[in-house]
Amino acid sequence: MDTVALGSHRLIHIDLKGAPPKPSYFEKFFPFIKSYGATGILLEWEDTFPYTKELLQIGGLSNSAQATGAPYSLEEAKQILDLATDCDLMVIPLVQTFGHMEFVLKHDQWRNLREVENYPSSMCPSNSETMGLVRSMIKQIVAFHSSLQYIHIGADEIWHMGWCPTCTKRMQSSKYGRDSLYLDHVVEVAQFIKENYPNLKIIIWDDMLRNMDLKTLQEYNIGYLVEPMVWHYNSLEDFKLGSPLWDKFSDVFKYIWCASAFKGATSSCQIMPILKHHTSNHEAWLRQLELYGNKILNFRGIAFTGWSRYDHYATMCELLPCSIPSLCFCMKTWLSGSLNQEMQLSLSESLGFPDGYQVEILKKMPHAQLNFPGGNIFLGMDLFCSLRTRFRNIINSDQMQTWFNQWQICNNYTNPMQIDTIAPFINELLMEILANENYLKTALESIYYPHTIEEIQGTLFMPIIQHLRQIKSDCETQLASGCRVRGKKRMLT
Q1: Taking the mean position of all CA atoms in its chain, how far away is CA 348?
Q2: Residue 354 DSSP code
Q3: Distance CA 31, CA 239 (A)
Q4: Residue 34 phi/psi, 5° resolution?
Q5: 3 state SS of 304
Q6: Cα four-point dihedral sign 386, 364, 267, 118
Q7: Helix, strand and coil percent figures for the chain, each rounded to 5
Q8: CA–CA separation, 18 vs 70, rounded Å?
Q9: Distances in Å between the alpha carbon of 20 and those of 153, 321, 380?
């Protein structure tokens, strides 16, 4: 296993559809991950890529992006690639070509390409204009990235396939039904790339291929066109892959990749990565390759995925700076086979955690110094998690439910003694959450664009702040009203 881990690619997946950092952050991040063992970047641009000409409206140069302060300009995108090159990190662009197409299909100009008219996630492979869009995207992506060796065409999680009338007819009349619908499209995309860029190797997510019959895959010659990236994010106890998959894929594909996760794979609204889960996922992958590695002709390497959103419309999950300790622990696990207590402590100390990786350090936020890019954001977000837990505990406490619920407030039927106990906790927490928001805003401004900061404030902070302010106001009103007889309802203004 040491030979497999050390002698293959180690790609860090950067998902730019959520919280895309400024190039100045990558100036620190790329050398950092290189020092921990990364060999390349799997760069998922999505709507941050500066598409031009007929694709202008879907990327960073669009009017909507410019209006909200979203990235990237041509100069910024080029700077990111140059920074990766300076660190000797291979860049593999990931461009979706089938599913996860919300960033394109949300626009009226391409709405007609949806498989389901109301759902912007999946493209219709039977629409005569679909391949024109795919070809245009690939051409611009390839032209922008110099010295490309690989391109990743996505093609995972096609939630709605075979739903439109044309696709339904094709599916019913084709030899392999739904599988044919998928493979016809993927093969056409791959053949276009092979014909126009013969030296470019094509990677694809494997999930849509897993349940297909061996005969189907062989008949389509898919193994000569693409290299599957087998992704699985479960911990060791729940790891689901096994011998039948590797038996089938080894008969079809000459080259195989795998994909783990260091963030973005436990909850769609997770704020801080669950370290134990992600390191266990890498232990599971190592065991999987140990058991079935002999069935893989050529193992290309691993992509450490770090999803920023579950789809284009989802709220953001773990920010990249919050996930760097998880990434480092996962990389160390991959390269070492496992982590003993001494190795964990040494790695924690190198990241700036003097007593090991412990959330308790965040109680000393103003004095903590973490040794990785964006460590102050890590501190601020973990403190936010602590404050949010306090908020939820107060809101759901017996005291609030018993003496200060909405019915009691609306009827001015409250006990001043209880309010005098509740109010100080509310005021203190409000001051702390406002201070935390201010601290984080300053930290975020050095790394992120305005549209990201606005989203973080709007989704995380504002609901809590507004709720606390309302409770504070209700406390003051109740204490001033003097009405303690049931039935004397609050006067509506």
Answers
A1: 24
A2: B
A3: 32
A4: -65, -40
A5: strand
A6: positive
A7: 55, 10, 30
A8: 11
A9: 20, 11, 18
Exposure on the CB side of residue 208, measured as CA atoms within 13 A: 23
- First and final C-alpha spacing in the chain: 71
Of 138, 171, 169, 173, residue with least CA distance to 155:
138
pLDDT mean values, one per 10 residues, the chain (493 residues): 70 97 98 97 97 96 87 96 98 98 97 97 97 98 96 96 95 92 97 97 97 96 97 95 94 97 97 96 95 91 97 97 97 92 90 67 56 95 96 97 94 93 96 97 96 97 98 95 70 50
Catalytic choice (27, 157, 349, 455): 157
Active site residue 219: no
Residue 401's Cβ-count burial label (10 Å; 0-12, 13-18, 19+) is: exposed
Helix (H, G, I), strand (E, B) or coil at 130: helix
Sign of the dihedral through C-alpha 197, 199, 202, 203 = negative
pTM above 0.85, yes or no: yes
Question: Are residues 229 and 209 in contact, defined by beta-carbon separation less than 8 angstroms?
Answer: no
